[in-house]
């Protein structure tokens, strides 16, 4: 079974539909996804080659029970051990992996769990990524908050007690430029201790500017490391350029950011290979930039507006748990984020094993925090969501639930220097 | 309590157990302090730098001396800024300098630590630098104005014990400041051993945080540290490495 991503909107003009169909059906109408577009900075880096050569030779069916047992016995987890833990042979060892993962988590993070919330400030997008609710052909309410509206949203969130914020936009340089995002960061710095960004990839000088504006952490999801599959999913726009996206974290570190986040969107391609690639991306970049803080997210595909059938295929909760445990055993020092795409029960369970960061009070829409947080609905316009969330717990509820699990919620572990 | 006290920055302490606070629930801090008999507790400035909603500072009993640390700093300049922030937050003049340019093992950067120590000591801080046990660096820290030296036993959070034992012994033997063994102490027996060697105090966090019963482990550490200290004061008996000692001295035949 594959996901059926293509949905035609009745609101699209005939010309737009024609172009859309051509992109979908005629690969020759699409640009070369491995070629940089004008204005995209090229850096000298060997990280991609290191990661992708390992991924290319990874044959997860060849690993056996013996390899998995050996991996669990080793004091430190090698790349080969990690490959065994990600393989189907490790599935029967999930409980042992969880035990080991829990031990590694407690050594590095104790019983603490960090809370944050995302703030979408604009949902305009110039890309056609077939699985995403923001894609330019999807008919949704588009919106871009002005600074006054952003500040209002930030106040509402800050008043709830949250101290870390993740600012997100759709990928549109035209509608939400670097200057606009920079101004939002300056505002965020007034209300929050930690400001993270999840925006379209930019050049290192632009990351430097955003860092000076107050942002200190950059997350970029590669979506899939399978370049051929990537080509069939990201049909148009800057996001189509796979290598520019791959090198985004390194450019962010070159621009002075404290830390960077990584992820594959599980369910798009072969999850064994995508999980391996995500972790190796962290592993090799950490060796090159040992001072940097690193984190991994583990999102699975979710339904979007106008396509409620999208699902993560063979990445069930069990596989997701295996991936997260393997990540933790291989990279014990790395933060692991589990978003509200997952259910409350999964998140309650996984924070006790390996996850160190969860979102709460989440909206993936635009400008709707006041109505969602306070119940007040003043009739102002809002922008539609990027995807359907699963765990809708508020900040307060999440705080209480984490405490009840015997864990310590942490709102800030951070100082901007 | 006996009269075996030690002094740091003009403060006299009885307890030789410095407690970490960053890896367990806030509501356990008070119990941990009590059962550990601790008089000094460390806290990360970055964690204390919070608005409301359970500030860690509210959980620390008044009679306990705060030892803010500069974790998160990657350079001397960043450590200095974090130390100043600690002072502004009302954490007092003590500061544990932690500078890491390595997010994987969190190993301290000795060179940057010396620089930060010098700047902060001049600003009147009671500077307690966390360092990799190197005699030359320890001497530089003394000259830079450190109040103590805090060598690591093994990587932070590893619970691997006294991996650097020989080098810590050299610091204890050669440096006139209190040597506080920090990081990697995983169980009370290891804390006891470091105290027998002549360490002035022990700092632990993960060993307690990962214990099944935190207050009970705090109490076990307290006892072990006291036992080790007493053994050090008593003077350890010699340990024979080969065979038995002759009861008649080998040189008993010498007449004049």
From TrEMBL, chain A:
Keywords: 4Fe-4S, Iron, Iron-sulfur, Lyase, Metal-binding, S-adenosyl-L-methionine
Cofactor: [4Fe-4S] cluster
CDD domains referenced in this protein's UniProt entry, alphabetically: Radical_SAM
Listed EC numbers: 4.1.99.19
Residue intervals of the Biotin and thiamin synthesis-associated domain: 297-409
SMART domains linked to this entry: BATS
Keyword S-adenosyl-L-methionine: yes
UniProt keyword Lyase present: yes
Gene Ontology MF annotations: 2-iminoacetate synthase activity; 4 iron, 4 sulfur cluster binding; iron ion binding
InterPro entries linked to this entry: Aldolase_TIM (IPR013785), BATS_dom (IPR010722), rSAM (IPR007197), rSAM_sf (IPR058240), ThiH (IPR012726), ThiH/NoCL/HydG-like (IPR034428)
Protein name from the UniProt record: 2-iminoacetate synthase ThiH
Species of the source: Anaerosacchariphilus hominis
UniProtKB/TrEMBL annotation, chain B:
GO cellular component terms, A-Z: cytoplasm
All copies of domain Thiazole synthase ThiG, residue ranges: 8-247
Keywords assigned by UniProt, alphabetized: Cytoplasm, Schiff base, Thiamine biosynthesis, Transferase
Keyword set includes Cytoplasm: yes
Residues holding 1-deoxy-D-xylulose 5-phosphate: 157, 183-184, 205-206
Active-site residue numbers: 96
GO BP annotations, alphabetical order: thiamine diphosphate biosynthetic process
Gene Ontology MF terms: thiazole synthase activity
Annotated pathway: Cofactor biosynthesis; thiamine diphosphate biosynthesis
Locations listed in the record: Cytoplasm
CDD domains: ThiG
Catalysed transformations (reactions): [ThiS sulfur-carrier protein]-C-terminal-Gly-aminoethanethioate + 2-iminoacetate + 1-deoxy-D-xylulose 5-phosphate = [ThiS sulfur-carrier protein]-C-terminal Gly-Gly + 2-[(2R,5Z)-2-carboxy-4-methylthiazol-5(2H)-ylidene]ethyl phosphate + 2 H2O + H(+)
Xref: InterPro entries: Aldolase_TIM, Thiazole_synthase_ThiG, ThiG
EC number: 2.8.1.10
Database matches in HAMAP family: ThiG
Assembly mode: Homotetramer. Forms heterodimers with either ThiH or ThiS.
Family, as annotated: Belongs to the ThiG family.
Function, in words: Catalyzes the rearrangement of 1-deoxy-D-xylulose 5-phosphate (DXP) to produce the thiazole phosphate moiety of thiamine. Sulfur is provided by the thiocarboxylate moiety of the carrier protein ThiS. In vitro, sulfur can be provided by H(2)S.
Annotated protein name in UniProt: Thiazole synthase
Record organism: Anaerosacchariphilus hominis
């Amino acid at each position: 079974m594959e996901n059926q991503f293509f949905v035609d909107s009745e609101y699209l003009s005939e010309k737009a539909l024609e172009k859309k169909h051509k992109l979908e059906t005629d690969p020759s109408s699409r640009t070369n996804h491995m070629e940089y577009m004008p204005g995209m900075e090229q850096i000298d880096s060997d990280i991609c080659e290191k990661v992708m050569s390992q991924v290319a030779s990874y044959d997860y069916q060849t690993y056996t029970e013996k390899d998995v047992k050996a991996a669990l016995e080793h004091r430190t987890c090698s790349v080969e051990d990690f490959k065994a833990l990600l393989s189907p042979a490790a599935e029967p060892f999930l409980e042992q992996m969880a035990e080991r993962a829990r031990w590694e988590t407690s050594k590095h993070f104790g019983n603490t769990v960090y809370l944050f919330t995302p703030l979408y400030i604009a949902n305009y997008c110039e890309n056609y990524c077939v699985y995403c609710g923001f894609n330019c052909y999807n008919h949704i309410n588009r919106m871009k908050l002005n600074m006054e509206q952003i500040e209002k949203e930030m106040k509402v969130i800050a008043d709830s007690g949250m101290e870390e914020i993740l600012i997100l936009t759709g990928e549109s340089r035209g509608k939400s430029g670097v200057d606009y995002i920079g101004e939002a960061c300056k505002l965020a710095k007034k209300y929050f201790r930690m400001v993270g960004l999840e925006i379209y990839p930019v050049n290192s000088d632009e990351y430097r500017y955003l860092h000076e504006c107050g942002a200190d952490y950059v997350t970029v999801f590669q979506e899939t490391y399978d370049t051929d599959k990537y080509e069939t999913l990201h049909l148009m726009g800057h996001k189509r350029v796979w290598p520019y996206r791959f090198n985004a974290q390194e450019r962010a570190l070159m621009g002075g950011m404290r830390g960077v986040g990584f992820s594959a969107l599980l369910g798009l391609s072969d999850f064994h290979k995508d999980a391996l690639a995500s972790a190796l991306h962290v592993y090799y970049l950490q060796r090159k930039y040992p001072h940097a803080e690193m984190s991994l997210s583990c999102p699975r595909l979710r339904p979007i507006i106008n396509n409620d059938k999208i699902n993560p295929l063979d990445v069930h909760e069990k596989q997701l748990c295996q991936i997260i445990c393997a990540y933790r055993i291989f990279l014990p020092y790395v933060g692991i984020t589990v978003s509200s795409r997952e259910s409350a029960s999964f998140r309650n369970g996984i924070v006790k094993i390996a996850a160190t960061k969860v979102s709460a009070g989440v909206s993936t829409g635009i400008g709707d925090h006041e109505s969602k947080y306070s119940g007040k609905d003043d009739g102002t316009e809002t922008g539609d969501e990027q995807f359907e969330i699963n765990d809708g717990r508020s900040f307060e509820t999440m705080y209480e639930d984490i405490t009840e699990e015997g864990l310590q919620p942490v709102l800030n572990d951070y100082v901007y220097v | 309590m006996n009269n075996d006290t030690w002094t740091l920055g003009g403060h006299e302490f009885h307890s030789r157990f410095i407690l970490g606070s960053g890896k367990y629930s806030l509501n356990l801090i008070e119990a941990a302090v009590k059962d550990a008999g601790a008089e000094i507790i460390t806290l990360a400035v970055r964690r204390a730098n919070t608005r409301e909603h359970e500030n860690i500072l509210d959980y620390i009993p008044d009679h306990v001396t705060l030892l803010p640390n500069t974790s998160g700093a990657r350079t001397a300049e960043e450590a200095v800024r974090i130390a100043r922030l600690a002072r502004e937050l009302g954490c007092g003049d003590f500061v544990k300098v932690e500078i890491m340019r390595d997010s994987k093992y969190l190993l301290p950067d000795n060179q940057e630590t010396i620089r930060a120590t010098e700047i902060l000591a001049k600003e009147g801080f009671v500077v307690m630098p966390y360092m990799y046990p190197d005699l030359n660096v320890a001497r530089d820290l003394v000259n830079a104005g450190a109040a103590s030296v805090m060598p690591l036993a093994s990587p932070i959070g590893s619970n691997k014990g006294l991996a650097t034992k020989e080098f810590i012994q050299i610091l204890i033997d050669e440096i006139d400041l209190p040597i506080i063994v920090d990081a990697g102490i995983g169980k009370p027996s290891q804390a006891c051993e470091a105290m027998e060697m002549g360490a002035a105090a022990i700092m632990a966090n993960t060993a307690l945080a990962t214990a099944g019963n935190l207050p009970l482990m705090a109490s076990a550490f307290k006892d072990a540290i006291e036992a080790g200290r007493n053994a050090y004061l008593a003077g350890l008996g010699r340990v024979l490495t080969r065979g038995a000692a002759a009861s008649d001295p080998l040189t008993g035949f010498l007449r004049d």
